[in-house]
UniProtKB/TrEMBL annotation:
<protein>
    <recommendedName>
        <fullName>Chemotaxis methyl-accepting receptor HlyB-like 4HB MCP domain-containing protein</fullName>
    </recommendedName>
</protein>
<feature type="transmembrane region" description="Helical">
    <location>
        <begin position="194"/>
        <end position="216"/>
    </location>
</feature>
<keyword id="KW-0812">Transmembrane</keyword>
<keyword id="KW-0472">Membrane</keyword>
<keyword id="KW-1133">Transmembrane helix</keyword>
Amino acid sequence: MSVLNKVESGYLQLMRILVLALATVVLVGVVLLGVNAVSDYNAKPAPVSEAIDIKASAFKLDDEAAEGASDDAAKPHPGAAKLEAALADVINKHGKALLGASFQFDKAEVHELVIGALEDPDQGESFLTSQTAYLDQVLGRADVAKQAKTSEAFYAIVNKVFVDYHMAYATEKERISNEKDEAKLDASGKRSGVYISLYMIAALFSAFIMLVMLIVQIRIERSIRVMSEANARA
């Protein structure tokens, strides 16, 4: 009988150790889920850079004819004159370098283009500034210079640069908008996942309490057995 008591006592001791280890694992799980839930609850959309950088190396030449510039008058706009002058300076710089010192471009020819961009809520001054830099880089390429041997070819390339940049800019704006929407959805999904985490925390914590109660019962059982054995020996 003494051997059986020792074996039973050994099993109770082993069970106590296993339950204690399991309870520890459950408690760690509760803490980790709690930390993750707090992090997800405070989740914010990931930052999305709004910088638009369109490489001049992406510009491709073709045989499109130049479109005629409009001379229609447009109402004055703050900052328009400075932007028109900057754009005209780039065209004049490369026009003189490629076609000769007699080349002359009047900034009035880009007035309508500048005003249209300034009045467009999706473009504005930043669009014109980056477009001017893009045009400068494209016209500075050796392969482009080889194609601009006449004024007609030069203006055709300039107009194509404007068209291509407008399309590339719109594509980049759409990409940025889509990335922002995805970031908002991701943050919203994380916040929604907090409720699932809370349910899991509650379930795991309940299991932890049950395991603790089981440990207490095992200790009581062992204490009773020790007392019984002591009484029997007495």
